Known about the structure:
With 696 residues, the chain is an alpha+beta fold. The protein has 24 helices and 19 strands. The protein starts with 10 loop residues before the first helix and ends in a 14-residue tail after the last strand. About 1% of the residues have low confidence.
Amino acid sequence: xxxxxxxxxxxxxxxxxxxPVDWFPWGEEALALxxxxxxxxxxxxxxSACHWCHVMEHESFEDPEIAEILNRNFVSIxxxxxxxxxxxxxxxxxxxxxxxxxxxxxxxxxxxxxxxPVFAGTYFPPRDAHGRPGFRTVLRYLDERWKADKNTLVSDxxxxxxxxxxxxxxxxxxxxxxxPEHTEQAASAVFRAFDLSxxxxxxQANKFPQSLSLDLLLRAFQATGQARFRDAVELTxxxxxxxxxxxxxxxxxxxxxxxxxxxxxxxxxxLYDQALVVMALVDGWQATENPxxxxxxxxxxxxxxxxxxxxxxxxxxxxxxxxxxxxEGKEGKFYVWTRDEVERSLDAKSAALFCSHFDVTEHGNxxxxxxxxxPHGPKNVLQVVRGAEILARLEGMAADDVVESLERSRxxxxxxxxxxxxxxxxxxxxxxxxGLMVAALARAAAVLRIPSYGEAAVEAAGFILREVTSHGRxxxxxxxxxxxxxxxxxxxxxxxxxxxxxxxxxADPRHLVDAEGLADTLAEHYWDDDGGxxxxxxADHEQLxxxxxxxxxxxxxxxxxxxxxxxxxxxxxxxRPDFRDKARAILEAYVDASNRTVFQQELxxxxxxxxxxxxxxxxxxxxxxxxMEAMQVAVHRRxxxxxxxxxxxxxxxxxxxxxxxxxxxxxxxxxxxxxxCRDQTxxxxxxxxxxxxxxx
Length: 696
């Protein structure tokens, strides 16, 4: 029989709706039951694409004996971390306290009825193994302790709760903003951690995209001219683009690589990774002087964007959250190939080229854990090990013929792969992640001149603003035809970011008017009057253990980091000095001058760089013709992270009068004209795109 999750909209919660565990969604019904009966709460937090979440479900939550223990002694609550980042942040802090700094999902937290943490961990096997307690053991131990020594557990939980509050609550009065040298110092600290032979962070067993670190390094390159910063970015993006972390048949990027070589990914695909990596690739495309890398980066930008539009786009034009790592019960099965499969699918010559290019061998380059016998031979994760030019020389072929053969083979194998059982799709629409994808598509559209990307971004933003709102405020999630849950500051910040990027693509002032309205709502309901910056939740949000501040750049940036940049831009674009004041307050509250937390503040350091170095306002006026197109191309080809782009629209669009323009800007001799201004002072107008950015 379905449990209480059967009426939820989250695919992750619905995956557990048939478990024998008597799951509750987070809400007053479950919390009141725990208080009324004095039971411990078992809080399980995960997400749909999480491999080990599936493992723990199959091993423990589908086990009738474990379910009976949970149902008799605990109130069991299942939470989708993507819907409830507020709960996730609070209880992840608790988990890391109990586990000595280790966190992850599934998160398994035991709470008193007053929501204070008694014990926490991540994945537990069903039985004791390898020196780790099994889930049965944990359940029985905590139940016995709760019944025999409740007062001690409550006291210990209170101390743990106080520690969580001190980690996440307001940090007190603001400090002085560090000087302009801080960005280079932070970038140098990041650079020292990079693997200079393979890219990414050297100390990590797993290799993550590190998109925000790449942004910081490129900012430092642009500010200092030190090529080492750009070199680290180019190396990392190239190795990601050629490695198995990128899906060479269908496009898109997997979550991370499980080895230092970027070969074997953790196969889930998250929407936010697609967005952030596209923006890193766009930055890399603009910053590089290497034509080969520019071609490679453009190819991967298109591959990721095309994947999102093909496989993660809803009929309404919004974007789904993720695709699972697993299919048919095994991680990665959808994506990997044997040599035999390739050779049976292609003619001999095409198969030989494909296998040589993508490292497909008889002995394979990866075996799924637990596979002692694999039909038709070991599996291969596709990675590029030989370029078309090398293959052409080896085979005595023209390079163009090699490229054409590889593309035909790729299309053939992609069509065959589409017949396989697909990984699970998490089809909920998250406001914040859609905002990130809007920002990425808008930037890709502007830089690569692909209007369909920008049009898709406009459609997604419009859906969120129209359908995922209530009484003038954003909601966090939309699924099964229903929007619900109050939005978080990240939702507002990411959507603001997307709208500002949209304006720089199509110059429609309505995007800025919408962004300004969201920023005002964010300031009204989420601002910390004492410490500065934005809380994660609104003032009228549900009361939880602590009202956390959104301060850490992680897999996604914090609301405060994003808004520290967006508010500076909106202050110039909309003539809102109060927005600049708030950006200053964020920097005063959050920038850590010690650099001890540099990997939690990469985007915040970028905002600090913009604050000190200032903004170049590039204003384009004149007829909207091919010459104006050439002027825009000249602007978008360059890596100019601290730019504000304003373009005149003829005829004006609604809201055009709201966009601040310096007086006296006119087209010279009726031709499209560019003005570059800083601090109310403009350089002479330019009508020749080639002269817009003269060599230094």
